[in-house]
Design goal:
Length: about 120
């Protein structure tokens, strides 16, 4: 089985999609409005290995696979939360919109440090 999922029999009309995109991978977690995880997946679960996991294709591919599973629950509306600076951020939005979901909100929840700890000394080469 490609996608890890819990047995969920209720119809879910609104879902929250958390997209965590790093420089090495894109991880998507789909939960209901009560923060119960419905599905999650990453580029590695599709069989994409190595540096190809960080590409925009991998972000769109995992979004379309998870979106099809989400359509089987009867979901029509989604909220999208983006986190990180990887290449799979916006292609994952495209993957969900191609399937016909009504996107209610797109928010960026990337954490940024503001005057935290002192950074290490610059490297001398």
């Amino acid at each position: 089985m490609l996608i890890k999922s819990k047995a969920y029999r209720k119809k879910v009309l609104i879902a929250i999609v958390n997209v965590f995109s790093t420089s090495n991978n894109t991880i998507i977690n789909i939960s209901d409005i009560y923060s119960k995880t419905l599905f999650f997946g990453s580029g590695g679960l599709l069989g994409i290995k190595g540096s190809r996991r960080s590409t925009s294709y991998a972000g769109q591919a995992i979004a379309s696979v998870l979106g099809k599973k989400l359509l089987s629950l009867g979901t029509k509306y989604i909220y999208i939360k983006l986190k990180g600076f990887g290449k799979g951020r916006y292609p994952s939005i495209k993957g969900f919109s191609i399937l016909g979901f009504n996107i209610l909100n797109i928010s960026d929840v990337t954490s940024l440090a503001f005057n935290g700890c002192k950074p290490p000394k610059k490297r001398r080469i």
